[in-house]
Amino acid sequence: MAIEGETTAGHEAKAAKAHKFLGSLRDALMAAGRDDAPIEMTPNAPAAAAKPASDEKAAPPPLPPKPQSLSAEEAARLARTAPEPKPEAAQPVEAAKESDVPPTTRVVRPENRVKKVEPEPEAEDAPARTVLVRGRRHIERGDFERDPVVGFLIVVGGPGLGSYRPIFEGNNTVGRSKDNRIPLDFGDDAISNEAQAYLRYDSSDRSFLFVPNLAKTNVVSVNDKRPAGPVPLQPMDVITFGRTQVAFLPFCGSEFDWSEISEA
């Protein structure tokens, strides 16, 4: 019986020791699952004294200490000794991404559309701006609308100095009136109103002939000589009508005549 009692006491001691170890292990595992509870290993504490971690409430964090009020002198001293804040560097503003911009709808009306102006086709009959001419170009000639000019009378003295009058092919009357073919209407009253003389050009022999009108009493002279009949004219002969002097300047003659062009 004594041996059986010792065996039972040994089993109970071993069971109590195992139960105490298991209780400590359970408490350590439950404490490890909490964030604010430190892990404490108490192998000698009784299992009944340990409380489950789920029944305990988490302790609130400690409040920060209240700032103590500073006197005016201490605040001024801290303001002087405090380092000046550095200005923040301006950051470039990034352009908004296309994905961040909401889509917009644009309404295009027919009247707001820009019409494309098409160039007008050039007329087929319009002549080209640049014409390439090779060699001698043929000149088209027609009939004379009036008698062609064959020479000139240029006023070199008296009223109308510097003026000129053309001489036409055939017979030309010279006088003060505008009805004459060669009117010397520059204000010289000494010139006869009607034909005071005649000036002829003969295209057959290409010669000029001055014929005074002997029925008139007005003074007429060629190179300071009063003619009594027809006088052939030479280039730069000076003819005097009253107080007006004119120089004869031929255009046609032995070197040129309008018949050359008409025949060509």
Automatic annotation (TrEMBL):
Residues 173-242 form the FHA domain. SUPFAM superfamilies: SMAD/FHA domain (SSF49879). Residues 108-119 have a biased composition (Basic and acidic residues). Pfam families: FHA. It comes from the Bacteria. Residues 43-52 have a biased composition (Low complexity). Residues 34-127 are annotated as: Disordered. This is FHA domain containing protein.
